[in-house]
Amino acid sequence: MKIIGLAGSNVGKKTRTAMDVVLKLMRTNYPSAEVELLDLADYQMVFSDGRDYRSYTGDTLKVTEAIMAADAIIIGTPIFQASIPATLKNIFDLLPVNAFRDKVVSFFVTAGSPKHFLIAEHQLKPILSYMKASIVETYVFIEEKDFLRNELINDDSHFRLARLVEDTYQLTLLRERLRIEKDAEYDF
């Protein structure tokens, strides 16, 4: 099982801090899973121009191919100006419409204000649904007050992230079992 942790911004530290917690939980609790971090701050991505993702080169091709090869993706995104960052939206634009078909996608949001808790519901979930993702229904919303000196200090946030990791892994496992059972129905 291949799981990608996608830190969806090229600035800031809070989302990456929370993603580090998520990836540590995944590696500790599910050591058989192949876990990879894609932090968009570490890559030089070009803007989508409508081409097939395989025709890009460099970091853009590397990131999109890794996402397409994953069984599950855990997205971490900050909220900027009441919206998801352009870097994350660009990832969605680079990928084909059905990019997340047969993939489990879960996410957490970091925000400076509790007023932004519905951004995920009104922006991120519709995009993921359109792209055919099997979305883990509950996401984690983490506020600025939950961090201190680039460390996630809120115990409830840790608990909710652990649950997100468990739900993501279990749903991915279930989807794989269902796929195997479905494939077994065919005798060719």
TrEMBL record:
Keywords assigned by UniProt, alphabetized: Flavoprotein, FMN, Oxidoreductase
GO molecular function, one term: oxidoreductase activity
SUPFAM superfamilies the record matches: Flavoproteins
Every NADPH-dependent FMN reductase-like domain range: 1-143
Protein name in UniProt: NADH-dependent FMN reductase
Organism: Brochothrix campestris FSL F6-1037
